[in-house]
Design a protein that fits this description.
homodimer; 5 strands; alpha/beta; five-stranded parallel β-sheet
Chain lengths: 338, 338
């Protein structure tokens, strides 16, 4: 599979996913049991190193090449007053990313990651899902393919984030379509909605669900109907990473919702991915629980733009440094358990 | 106050603590409101930068000089079979720290922190608290002073950790003396105790509490009776950091218990400190709740040796990078809220 040119390609790719490398994971577990610490005492740091190795297929994982992709899109539903900010901010923030002035630029520098920002037809917002599908199948596949093709095959770790005024509304509607419930369950305050804005957001989600009668329907159809281009691109990038054996850190609510259709279509399709942090956005904790994914950090962040995913790279670097650099009991002459 | 030579000195120091710099914190909050992100959307990253600035007394906080101090001690109570490891491991792990082979060495390198390890009379364990006081007043003050004097006045941030076979038993008994409850409430599996070991640990804690009739008594007396030298040193270092206006990251259960007497003696005495991570050690979550402190990370770690505190430095570095490096709305030409 060299790319995604159709829904048929996408489904075929999902039906034939690479599995993790059990031998690499076993080699890592064996070394961890010999390092000078009580067994399991580094907790999730140990799990995360084993996860890196399993998906990289390496007994000694690497984080030499950490790639952060931020996809940006505009949303027809933004016209319904569902965001605290005007839609103009999407393109302005893309310019801010390119100028190095956003949070994600600083975090990438701090953790040693390479940032690439990919705007997706910002001057052509998706359709307002309360009135029509957000995307045609062709538009959806084009965005998926853009995400798929953006993944550098040589990356050791991929962080996925997004920017798009109105996209927590899209993500909420998508989560509702996949998992049940409506605006009441899934809508959060996004960039800082007031109460009237929250009412409009819940109404838009419920109107979309009602119009398209989509509950528990095909996950790809749900993404075409509700998801913006940046969500479709994250779906494509998550799939490409699996094919390239690259572990993935999903950022917050929108990125998790964007990848969720893969898990609904194919069990285990997100085994190569972790949710980097639990967003303060209201629906995220429940979404992670539904997917059986436990976020690594929980710092009340709700910025998006890959910020939580990039921040988590520092935890992985420390975890890997312990794994590769610690002495064993034998090397250090430390007594073992009584 | 140049040091701590007596309990009188210690109490005098506590009665005259420096307060935080409200102007610095206000300057930080003002800048945060102008940066290109929704207000508050970096969550705890924003809180932590304000906390750094408040205690450093700087509107632009620094993390140029991050110091990790790990104190090590041996415990008479270890002879009661309360640890999965023999007491010989304390000195062996100190040697491992000095040789660069432990987890804390790798994490310090990963996050850019300077490690110093301070063994405290390892060949003279404290008394077994089921039979006598762990320390005399003179021994206690000597350990407090060692910790106090070890703090480099120039540090921008201080991380405090410990090593000592048996010291979760000491910390549990100390927490019980300060906060109520006994072995059932406070004992955890430490480095990996089996069920019979857990029974011995709970019994030792309850026997100590019973012998010394210490519940809710003077916090310093509780530390002399139950605490090891490394706990007393952490208490002293936490106090010195406050006097030098250095923010403190406390590591897990033992470090938090060690600092807890300060909070019991003087309200606000730990305002310059954060609990870096919630340890998997059973009593830690409850101890933090009692102290009104919310750990920053929660990664099932239970290693001690300052590992969780040092790991958290990476989060602070990213938070500070955002604060210092991001563009404002005006600079970036990004529209503000509708």
């Amino acid at each position: 599979m060299n790319g995604i040119a159709s829904v048929v390609d996408l489904r075929a790719s999902l039906a034939d996913l690479p599995t993790g490398d059990d031998d690499a994971a076993a080699a890592i577990a064996k070394r961890q049991s010999r390092l000078t610490k009580p067994l399991g005492s580094l907790g999730r740091l140990e799990e995360l190193v084993a996860w890196l190795g399993r998906w990289q297929g390496r007994g000694a994982p690497r984080l030499d090449d950490v790639s952060v992709l931020v996809f940006a899109g505009n949303h027809g539903v933004a016209a319904r007053g569902v965001s605290a900010y005007p839609a103009s901010v999407t393109a302005q923030m893309v310019a801010n990313f390119e100028a190095g002035g956003a949070a994600i630029n600083q975090i990438c520098k701090s953790v040693g990651a390479t940032l690439r920002v990919i705007p997706l037809k910002l001057d052509a917002p998706t359709g307002d899902f309360t009135q029509s599908q957000a995307m045609t199948e062709a538009e959806f596949i084009e965005a998926v393919a853009t995400g798929y093709d953006a993944v550098p095959a040589s990356a050791d770790l991929l962080c996925l984030g997004e920017m798009g005024i109105g996209n927590t509304t899209s993500a909420s509607a998508l989560a509702a379509a996949l998992l049940g419930g409506g605006g009441e369950r899934w809508a959060g305050r996004g960039t800082g909605l007031d109460d009237p804005g929250m009412a409009r957001k819940r109404e838009a989600i419920d109107a979309g669900l009602d119009r398209h009668q989509i509950h528990h329907a095909d996950p790809l159809a749900a993404c075409m109907i509700f998801g913006g281009r940046e969500l479709a691109a994250i779906l494509g990038a998550t799939l490409a990473a699996r094919r390239h054996r690259i572990p993935v850190l999903l950022d917050g609510f929108v990125a998790t919702a964007a990848a969720a259709p893969l898990a609904r279509l194919q069990q285990g399709a997100l085994d190569h991915a972790q949710v980097a942090h639990c967003s303060a956005e209201a629906g995220h904790r429940g979404l992670c629980a539904e997917l059986g994914m436990r976020p690594i950090l929980d710092l009340d962040m709700r910025l998006g733009e890959g910020s939580g995913a990039a921040l988590t790279v520092s935890v992985l670097r420390a975890a890997l440094a312990c794994h590769l650099g610690m002495a064993t009991f034998d090397e250090a002459g430390v007594d073992e358990r009584d």
